């Protein structure tokens, strides 16, 4: 995800890195993804992760202590101001869904050109490059917030400029709530920047067309989108939009079935195509969890080690 003011900086890739301007067109299928092939080194990390997990369950107090340490690690207001100066500029504040979830200056995504032509805006979008390996030629991820209605065009400008082949959305558009079992209201969790129903849509100078939609057995919604500028004669950019609407707020899924499917679908995408975009409502915890799955030393590799066969 993007680096966040809620904690210390994450590993950041240089914002100047970009994929090839003429990459091989990507094709996506609604069919089930192939199983992941795990190397012996990854299998060893799976074994270590399972052992560490079992040991951790025996120490609930240590888990609580680690949580409090994380809370104490939040950046001070002065540190936030120095490291997130562009995000905190008065002309950009309205582009942030939350005032304390901001990208760091050093690895933020810079839009060039940007529909906001004010010089002080500096091509701002609440999004950051996240690097998973120093050996990669481009950033593996862009982490961002759930787009706001007035940042939809900025969001798609980012997708086109960085030739992003996949968008991973770990939230739903709205949630239904009941109060005293009689009053129901809806909470908007993310703007509809992609058009939930089949059909074309325009955001400023950018056109979005939905080619197909499929809901999998694990409640994942797949959409094949084509993105392009209105008057462009270039072929449209193919984007696989993966939405997992069942991820709970302030929690984790009850099982790893959907997470494993997401991992398989995204892991098969060549890193040379461009960065994978990840967002939820606010991009801290879920995006961190998903991005960690691309680290072969991450405990999340254990998913495919002790999953039901």
TrEMBL record:
One of its GO terms (molecular function) is protein tyrosine phosphatase activity. PANTHER family: RECEPTOR-TYPE TYROSINE-PROTEIN PHOSPHATASE (PTHR19134), TYROSINE-PROTEIN PHOSPHATASE 1 (PTHR19134:SF449). Residues 1-35 are annotated as: Disordered. SUPFAM superfamilies: (Phosphotyrosine protein) phosphatases II. It comes from Camellia sinensis (Tea plant). Residues 63-280 form the Tyrosine-protein phosphatase domain. Pfam families: Y_phosphatase. This is Tyrosine-protein phosphatase domain-containing protein.
């Amino acid at each position: 995800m993007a680096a966040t003011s809620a904690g210390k900086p994450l590993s950041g890739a240089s914002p100047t890195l970009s994929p090839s301007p003429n990459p091989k067109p990507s094709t996506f299928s609604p069919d089930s993804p192939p199983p992941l092939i795990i190397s012996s080194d990854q299998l060893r990390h799976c074994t270590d992760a399972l052992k560490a997990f079992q040991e951790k369950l025996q120490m609930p107090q240590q888990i609580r202590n680690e949580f409090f340490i994380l809370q104490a690690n939040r950046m001070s207001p002065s540190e936030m101001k120095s490291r997130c100066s562009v995000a905190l500029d008065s002309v950009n504040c309205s582009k942030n869904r939350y005032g304390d979830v901001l990208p760091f200056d050093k690895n933020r995504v810079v839009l060039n050109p940007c529909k906001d032509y004010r010089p002080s805006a500096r091509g701002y979008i609440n999004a950051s490059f996240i690097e998973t390996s120093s050996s990669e030629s481009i950033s593996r991820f862009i982490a961002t917030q759930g787009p706001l209605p007035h940042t939809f065009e900025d969001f798609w400008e980012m997708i086109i400029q960085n030739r992003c082949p996949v968008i991973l959305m770990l939230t739903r558009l709205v949630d239904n709530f009941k109060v005293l079992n009689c009053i129901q209201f809806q909470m908007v969790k993310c703007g509809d920047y992609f058009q939930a129903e089949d059909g074309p849509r325009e955001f400023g100078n950018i056109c979005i067309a939905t080619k197909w939609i499929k809901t999998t057995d694990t409640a994942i919604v797949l959409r094949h989108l084509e993105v392009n500028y209105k008057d462009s004669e270039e072929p449209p950019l193919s984007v696989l939009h993966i939405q997992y609407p069942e991820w709970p707020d302030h929690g984790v899924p009850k099982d790893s079935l959907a997470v494993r499917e997401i991992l398989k679908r995204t892991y098969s995408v060549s890193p040379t195509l461009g960065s994978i975009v990840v967002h939820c409502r606010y991009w801290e915890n879920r995006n961190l969890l998903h991005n960690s799955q691309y680290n072969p030393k991450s405990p999340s590799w254990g998913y495919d080690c002790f999953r039901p066969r």
